[in-house]
Design a protein that fits this description.
The chain is an alpha+beta fold. The chain has one domain. It has three helices and three strands, in the order ααβαββ. Strands 1-2-3 form a three-stranded antiparallel beta sheet. Strand 2 and strand 3 form a beta hairpin.
Length: about 130
């Protein structure tokens, strides 16, 4: 029994912690890894949001074309995603993911019934980039 207690005391005395230099080296390596990983992760998130908005734009375009056909229009017409949702052509108004300056989508259907452009809108200002391109 005494031998076991003596062995535990020796083990406890032989244990030593990390030095300050070793801890600083580990922190430096972690900082370098974070400096590389964070921008890549952020870029991936932004790309995913843009791709989600392009997919949403395609859905809004198809809903706008259907509304144009149902209304028997013969001229160019624009529709917002919120109006398409309230008219039942979309289940709900889709959220804009990639651009926080805008809160809706606006689709333009030409006189032949084809949606030619979907842009971000906030009710007063429209973005210039066509999400269907």
């Amino acid at each position: 029994m005494i031998k076991i207690a003596t062995a535990f005391k020796k083990i406890g005395k032989d244990k030593r912690g990390f030095t300050l230099v070793e801890l600083m080296a580990v922190l430096a390596v972690l900082a370098i890894i974070a400096a590389i990983a964070v921008p890549r992760f952020t870029g991936t998130i932004n790309t995913a949001k843009k791709n989600a908005d392009k997919a949403t734009a395609t859905i809004v375009a198809r809903a706008a074309e259907q509304k144009w056909l149902d209304d028997q229009e013969s001229t160019e017409k624009t529709y917002t995603a919120s109006s398409l949702a309230s008219d039942g052509y979309l289940k709900e108004t889709p959220d804009v993911q990639a651009n926080s300056s805008y809160d809706d989508y606006k689709a333009t259907v030409d006189s032949s019934g084809k949606c030619t452009k979907v842009v971000y809108t906030n009710g007063t200002n429209d973005a210039t980039d066509n999400l269907l391109d």
